[in-house]
Amino acid sequence: MKLLSAIYFAVAAATTAFAADSRYSGDQVVRFNVTSPKDADILKDAIDKGGLGLDVWTHRASAAGKIDVRAIKKLGLPYTVLVPDLQALVDAERDHMGKNSEVLHNSLMSGEPVQLTAATIFNDWQSYETLSAFIAGLPGVTQLPSIGKTYQGRDINAFKFGTGPYAVVFNGGIHAREWISPATTTYVTDQLVKNADLLKKFTFYVIPVLNPDGYAYTRAASGQRYHRKNLEPNAGTSCIGTDINRNFDYMWSKPGASSDQCSDTYYGKAALSTAEASSLSKFIKSIPNTVGYVDLHSYSEMFLFANGYTCTGQVKDYDTLYKGSKLAADAIKATSGEIFKYGGSCATSYKTSGDTVDYMYNAVGVTYSYTLELRPNENAASGTAGFNPPVSEIIPSGQETTAAFLALWNYVYGQLSATPSPSTSPLPPTSISKTSAPTSKTATPATTSAAVCSHTVCVTGGKLVSSCSDCAKAVCAKDSYCCNTSWDSTCVREVSQYCTGVAC
Ligand code: 0X9
Ligand code: ZN
User: Has this prediction a pTM greater than 0.90?
Assistant: First the structure.
């Protein structure tokens, strides 16, 4: 495991060799089948010395396993060629977009009438604007005020739908080059808004693209198709960006992330220093009764939960989290036949620190927090591998992920409903559906003024309580809130204050 971590971030650091290059001629994607610690050492050594122009696309948790690398030179290790000519793949992708998604995007931006339907958008990789406009037009969906602005000034768009007592947040596009993630996130949204039963159980909040600057950069012909991070410059270097998925405030800057600004896993200048991570953090903390979170990535087909920062031990909720991920993976298998791995993220894949799932689970107290690595997996046919699946994969990915969501959230609802009352009686649906823009609560400082807390909820811990005194007794995770159900900020307290005995 230790060796793998070393391989992982050292290889990622080597990607800077491509930072100023927007052409992919001569690049291949090759797969090293590392079968012994000796081979792993050869690879690690080559990476550490740098200069080989390696860009690691998959990472494995042990010395043995398949590692996909974008390579321009041989290492003297046995490998198979997955993508013989990356330029041809990128050219074909852009050619298709020029005739489809870009036409739609240009019409939308120039105010022409456009038909945004499942049939017209899931046939290509759509722009951030097109995906946002499509979601905004879905029945029952409310577009929320922007949850934050990126370095380049883009709004980070968020949407809400459903009227259920428990909140679930999901996002795509934290990593710019993982295009199937925003597409799948949007497809799932289109399906969930039609599921009346689920919408009575949950209120969903969706952020289709958390890293819209990066996404736009990977789509632009003048940009970098394989850029992963955000677009914030780093002082003293031409290497751009922080890895948003290493920038969260739990175990930030620990092993599993890099201090090297040029690394693809650069953890940033401070915890939550990126607009994207801090906006998501504030947003999720502002939502009452958040019980679930999913961060959609690609690729490798896995359903993962905390912890990422350590490969030993199990989190307190391991059994229920494991069951949820197994049910999700089973649903995927039944839908498409794809086999998703599942389990604790470090133990199942590799070590990460400061990532979403560890933060949501450990620091925010969102119990059912998952990272989903979408298709393809390592068995995908040559030429369809990695970050360039054909557009025909969008709908199957959306279908299997929808099945996973239904299995997971119905299971979670059953778990929450089964917990003994009074701490589990769901909120009356109307109280949450009437809530106003979620940004207001975080802007309001915690207060100790008297307030009427007739029905309170320990927000991020997911525990419902029926009176102020119960709220005071509730054990909530650090950084979670106790507030009343109608989102009255006068009743918001840091739970740490409550737990030290401050009465409402
Ligand atoms: O490394 C990441 O941020 C995620 N993988 S990706 O290839 N999409 O970049 C994985 C995060 C999940 N956590 C762990 N595997 N520990
Ligand atoms: Zn990712």
Answer: no
- Tallying the residues shown for the chain, one arrives at 504
The answer to whether 502 and 470 have CB atoms below 8 angstroms apart is no
Catalytic residue selected from 301, 373, 393, 400: 373
> Ligand 1 atom closest to Cα of 352?
16
CA 269, 147, 362: angle at the middle one, nearest 5?
60
Query: Which H or E run contains 431?
Result: helix 429-433
Close Cβ partners of 369 (under 8 Å, ≥ 6 residues apart): 292, 293, 294, 305, 306, 356, 357, 360, 361
Say if residue 461 is in the same domain as residue 413: no
Assign residue 247 the CATH number of its domain: 3.40.630.10
Amino acid at 467: S
Q: Which two three-digit tokens encode residue 262? A: 């040029």
Q: What angle do CA 279, 158, 90 make, to 5 degrees?
A: 90
Residue 45: predicted pLDDT: 66
CA distance 416 to 375: 30
Whether residue 42 lies inside any domain: the answer is: no
Taking every pair of Cα atoms in the chain, the longest distance, rounded to a whole number of angstroms, is: 71
Our count of domains for the chain comes to: 2
* C-beta of 350 in contact with ligand 1 (< 6 A): yes
Q: What angle do CA 211, 477, 181 make, to 5 degrees?
A: 25
40-53 pLDDT, tens digit per residue, is 767 766 665 555 56
The DSSP annotation for 216-264 comes to HHHHSTTS-TT--S---B-TTSS-B---GGG-SSSSTTSBTBB--TTST
Q: How far is the CA of 221 from the centre of ligand 2 (A)?
A: 22
Residue where a domain stops, chosen among 417, 435, 451: 417
CA 269 from chain centre, in angstroms, equals 21
- 417 to each of 159, 288, 488, 492, how far by Cα in Å? 26, 17, 25, 25
Residues of the chain falling short of pLDDT 50: 1-22, 60-63, 72, 420-468, 470-504
pLDDT at 340: 97
Whether 308 lines ligand 1, by a CB cut-off of 6 Å, is yes
Q: Is 129 a catalytic residue?
A: no
Q: Which tokens hold the place of 383?
A: 């030429």
For the Cβ of 224 lying below 6 angstroms from any atom of ligand 1, the answer is no
Q: Which of 5, 68, 370, 373 to mutate to test the pocket of ligand 1 (most atoms within 8 A of CB)?
A: 373
Residue pair 280/207 in contact (Cβ under 8 Å)? The answer is yes
| Residue 238 shares a structural domain with residue 251 | yes
Domain extent, residue 97, equals 90-417
Rounded distance between C-alpha atoms, residue 226 and residue 19, angstroms: 9
